[in-house]
Write a structure and sequence with these properties.
The complex is a heterodimer of chains A (257) and B (244). Chain A has 257 residues and is mainly α. Helix content of chain A is 81%, strand content 0%. Chain A is built from 11 helices and no strands. In chain A, helix 5 crosses helix 6 and helix 8 packs antiparallel against helix 11. The radius of gyration of chain A is 21 Å and the shape is globular. Chain B is mostly helical and 244 residues long. Chain B is built from 10 helices and no strands. In chain B, helix 3 runs antiparallel to helix 5, helix 4 crosses helix 5 and helix 4 packs antiparallel against helix 7. Chain B starts with a helix and ends with a helix. Classes of the chains: A mainly alpha (257), B mainly alpha (244). At the A-B interface, helix 1, helix 2, helix 4, helix 5 and helix 7 of A face helix 1, helix 2, helix 3, helix 4 and helix 6 of B.
C-alpha cells in the first residue's frame, strides 16, 4: 500500500515538475507557431513514456539506491575519524583514502546511469555521424566526474578554498580548448552540465554534507557545497582529453594502413 | 507486436547495462568494505526493477517524443523567421524549467540557512524564505537569459569558446569580491538547473536550429546551450550575493 502511495506521489511531483515546460510548449505551439506538429500522436505517446519512465526511475531510486547510499556515506565518513579526531585538532587527509575511492567509484557509476547524459550522447553520436561514440563519450564524462568528486572530497577534508580548485580547472579547460578541434568544444562544454542530475546530485550532495559534518573542523553549511561544481568542471577536461586521444589513435591507425 | 516487444526487451537490456556500475559499486562497498548485508533486500530489488523499467521507458520516450519535438519546434521557428518569438520562447523555456526544479529548491533552502548563519540576512523563517525565493527567481532568470544568449550564438555563429572563457574570467573576478559563504552555493547552482526533461529538449532545439539555418554545422553550432545554462547562474548568484 505504501508503495502505491509513493508511486502516486512520485507521479504527481514529476508531472508538477514538467508542467511549466509542457505549458510553455503548448502555449507557443498554439499561439505563435499555429501549426499542427507532424506525428503529434507519436510525440504525445513519447511524452507519456518519458513521464512514466521518470516516475518509475525516481521512485526506484528513492526505494533502492538513496537509502543505501546515505547509510553507506554515513558509515564511510564516520569510519576513520574515531581516534585521530579525538586527540588532535589537525586532520590527516590520508585517513580518508577509502572515502576518496568510494567518491570516485560512485561518481563514475551514477554518471553512467544519468538519463540526460545518455540523451546527449545519443544525439552527439547521431549528429557527428558516428565520429563521436556514445559509449566512449559517456565513459569519458564518467571518468571526469570520478576524478572531480574524489578531488572535491579531498578538498573538504583538507579545508582548502574551493575557488582555487575551480579556477585552476577553468585554466586547464581554456588551455585544452585552444588545443582541441573546433567541433568537439561545444559538446564538451555541454557535458559539464548534463552530468549532474537525477542520480548523481542527491548521492554526491549527501556525500559532501556527510563528510563535512564528520570531519573535525568542517561545517556542513560552509564546506559541504562545491562537490557538484567539481563534477561540472572535470568532465569538460576529460571529454576534451578523450577527443585528443581518439584523434591521435585515428591518426596512428591511418598512418599504418 | 513482437517487434515492439523485441524493441522494449532491447531497451531493458540497455537500461540494465547502464545501471550495472551503480549496482556493482554499492554491492562491493556494502559487502566487501563495510561487510554488511543488505537491509530490506526485497524492497531494494523492487526499487531496482522500477529504476531499470523507468530508464528503458524514458529512453524510448526520448527518441519518439522529446527529440522530434525539439527539432520540429526549431524548424518551425526558423521557417517563421520571427526572432522575437524565438528568443521569447528560449527565455520562457529556460525560466520555466529552472523555476520548478526540485534540486534548485533544495539548494536555495540550504543557501538561505548559510546566509542567515553568516549574518547576511535576519535569522527568521520569513527572511530565509524570502531569500530562498529570490535566489530561485535569480537563477531561473539567469537560465532564461542563458538560453537566449545560446540561441543568439547559434543564429550568429559566434565561436562558443570566447563566450564561455569570457564567462570564466567574469566568475574568477567576481569570486574575489563576493562574500565567502555564497561562493560554494554559486558554483553548485550551475550544475543543478538542468533537469532530465530539459536537457534532451534543449539539445534537440539547438541541433534543430543549427540544421535548419544555412551555413551552420549542427556539431559545431548545435551544442552549447546547456553550457550557457550552467555558467550563467554562477555569475547571477555571485552578483546576488554581492548585492544582498
Amino acid at each position: 500500500m505504501d508503495f502505491v502511495y509513493n508511486l502516486a506521489g512520485a507521479a504527481l511531483s514529476t508531472v508538477l515538475d514538467v508542467a511549466p515546460i509542457i505549458g510553455i510548449l503548448v502555449l507557443f505551439q498554439v499561439a505563435v507557431l499555429r501549426k499542427k506538429l507532424p506525428n503529434l500522436r507519436r510525440i504525445i505517446s513519447g511524452f507519456i513514456c518519458v513521464l512514466l519512465g521518470l516516475t518509475l526511475f525516481l521512485i526506484g531510486l528513492e526505494e533502492a539506491l538513496f537509502p543505501i547510499g546515505e547509510t553507506m556515506v554515513q558509515q564511510l565518513t564516520a569510519l576513520d575519524t574515531g581516534v585521530s579526531a579525538e586527540f588532535t585538532d589537525t586532520v590527516n587527509w590520508q585517513d580518508y583514502l577509502l572515502v576518496y575511492v568510494f567518491a570516485g567509484a560512485i561518481g563514475f557509476a551514477t554518471t553512467i546511469a544519468e538519463p540526460p547524459l545518455i540523451a546527449v550522447a545519443i544525439k552527439a553520436q547521431d549528429v557527428s555521424g558516428g565520429a563521436v561514440n556514445a559509449w566512449g563519450l559517456r565513459l569519458a564524462v564518467a571518468a571526469g566526474v570520478a576524478v572531480g568528486v574524489a578531488l572535491g572530497c579531498f578538498r573538504i577534508v583538507t579545508g582548502t578554498p574551493l575557488p582555487w580548485y575551480i579556477i585552476a580547472g577553468y585554466v586547464v579547460v581554456i588551455v585544452l580548448t585552444f588545443r582541441s578541434g573546433r567541433s568537439i568544444v561545444p559538446l564538451a562544454y555541454d557535458c559539464g552540465g548534463v552530468t549532474t542530475s537525477t542520480v548523481t546530485v542527491p548521492v554526491v550532495a549527501a556525500l559532501g554534507l556527510g563528510l563535512a559534518a564528520n570531519v573535525p573542523g568542517r561545517s556542513p553549511l560552509i564546506d559541504g557545497f562545491g562537490l557538484i561544481a567539481f563534477a561540472s568542471v572535470f568532465p569538460i577536461m576529460s571529454v576534451l582529453g578523450y577527443a585528443m586521444i581518439a584523434s591521435w589513435l585515428n591518426r596512428g591507425r591511418n598512418l599504418k594502413t | 507486436m513482437t517487434a515492439v516487444l523485441m524493441l522494449f526487451a532491447g531497451r531493458i537490456i540497455d537500461a540494465f547495462r547502464d545501471l550495472a556500475p551503480v549496482i556493482a559499486v554499492i554491492a562491493f562497498f556494502q559487502i566487501v568494505v563495510l561487510q554488511q548485508s543488505f537491509p530490506n533486500l526485497p524492497d531494494v530489488v523492487v526499487g531496482l526493477v522500477c529504476v531499470i523499467a523507468g530508464l528503458a521507458l524514458f529512453i524510448q520516450g526520448l527518441e519518439s517524443g522529446l527529440f522530434p519535438l525539439g527539432e520540429s519546434i526549431a524548424q518551425e521557428f526558423s521557417k517563421k523567421g520571427s526572432l522575437t518569438a524565438l528568443l521569447a520562447f528560449a527565455f520562457c523555456l529556460g525560466f520555466g524549467t529552472a523555476v520548478a526544479e526540485p534540486a534548485l529548491i533544495a539548494v536555495a533552502g540550504e543557501a538561505a540557512k548559510v546566509a542567515s548563519e553568516a549574518g547576511a540576512i535576519a535569522d527568521s523563517v520569513e527572511a530565509q524564505e524570502a531569500y530562498a525565493f529570490n535566489l530561485r527567481i535569480v537563477v531561473a532568470v539567469s537560465v532564461g537569459a542563458a538560453i537566449v544568449l545560446g540561441v543568439l550564438r547559434i543564429l550568429k555563429g559566434w565561436p562558443i569558446h570566447r563566450l564561455i572563457i569570457g564567462g570564466y574570467v567574469l566568475v574568477t573576478v567576481m569570486t574575489a569580491f563576493a562574500p565567502a559563504e555564497i561562493i560554494g552555493i554559486a558554483y553548485d547552482s550551475g550544475g543543478v538547473t538542468t533537469s532530465t526533461v530539459t536537457v534532451p529538449l534543449v539539445t534537440a532545439l539547438g541541433v534543430g536550429l543549427a540544421r535548419s539555418i544555412r551555413g551552420r554545422n549542427p556539431m559545431v553550432d548545435g551544442f552549447g546551450l546547456i553550457a550557457f545554462a550552467c555558467l550563467m547562474p554562477i555569475i547571477f548568484v555571485l552578483a546576488y550575493g554581492m548585492v544582498v
